[in-house]
Amino acid sequence: MRKQIFSYIVACAAAFCLTFSGAASGIAGAAQDTSDTTGDTSGAAQGASNASGDTYSAAKGASAAQAVKLDMPDGEYSIEVDLAGGSGKASVVSPTILTVQEGKAYARIEWSSANYDYMIVASQKYLNASAEGGNSVFDIPVTAMDEGMSVIADTTAMGTPHEINYTLTFYSETIGAKSQMPREAAKRVVAVALAIIIGGGILNHFVNKRRDI
């Protein structure tokens, strides 16, 4: 009977882990399913190469593109962001990471395509910071909150580099802990499930030991 109870606990924990980690991965990956254009993904390699030679961080561009001030402690948070413009096929990951540095706001923009090699925010260029083969990622200053923020993103998907105008909108009311992001939530779910499995194993060990006595 005890073995059956333990087996039931382990099975439930395993199912809990697989279900929620899969769901969170699906949420995190949903924003990567569409692309603004279809073309040769060699643009990702080109962007990674440029980034390795001269990577622009959000902090470096703060002098040219004035980041908005936030009355909150320095650190990393989550924030929801909307994207408009282009053909409407591209997307960015939301919620995304919001970094407050010296009271100013910077955001990580992860595209659904690997073909963006740079972005321009308030005349300042920011290069792709993702690893080779990954979707394009940029750390940029947030120059407007709760209203449209105009940016330019250059894509190499059509062979010849092509700049596209977009609008990003960040919503201050959605600012929360970084742990609220799907990927962070998935890590917590897996940790809880593993703790349940390990705890069940320890309990079963002591039950069997007591029975042998």
Quickly list its features:
213 residues, alpha+beta, 5-stranded antiparallel β-sheet, 3 helices, elongated
Structural features, described:
- The protein is an alpha+beta fold and 213 residues long.
- It is built from 3 helices and 10 strands.
- A 5-stranded antiparallel β-sheet has the order 7-4-3-1-10, with no helix packed on it.
- Helix 1 runs antiparallel to helix 3.
- The two termini are 18 Å apart.
- The relative contact order is 0.21.
- About 23% of the residues have low confidence.
Summarize the helix and strand pattern as letters. HHEEEEEEEEEEH
Low-confidence stretches: 16-59, 185-189
How many strand elements? 10
Shape: elongated
Report the helical percentage.
25-40%
Q: Strand content of the residues, in percent?
A: 25-35%
Instruction: Report the structural category.
Output: alpha+beta
Could you tell me how far the N terminus lies from the C terminus, measured between alpha carbons in angstroms?
18 Å
The largest beta-sheet arranges its strands as 7-4-3-1-10
Instruction: Provide mean pLDDT, rounded.
Output: 74
Number of helical regions: 3
Q: Quick gist of this model?
A:
The chain is built from three helices and ten strands, in the order H-H-E-E-E-E-E-E-E-E-E-E-H. By secondary structure, the chain is α+β, with helices and mostly antiparallel strands.
Q: How do the strands and helices of this protein lay out in sequence?
A:
Layout lengths: L1 H29 L11 H12 L21 E5 L1 E5 L10 E6 L2 E7 L5 E6 L2 E4 L9 E5 L7 E7 L6 E9 L5 E2 L4 H31 L1
Antiparallel strand pairs: 1-3, 1-10, 2-9, 3-4, 4-7, 5-6, 5-8, 8-9
Helix pairs in contact: 1-3
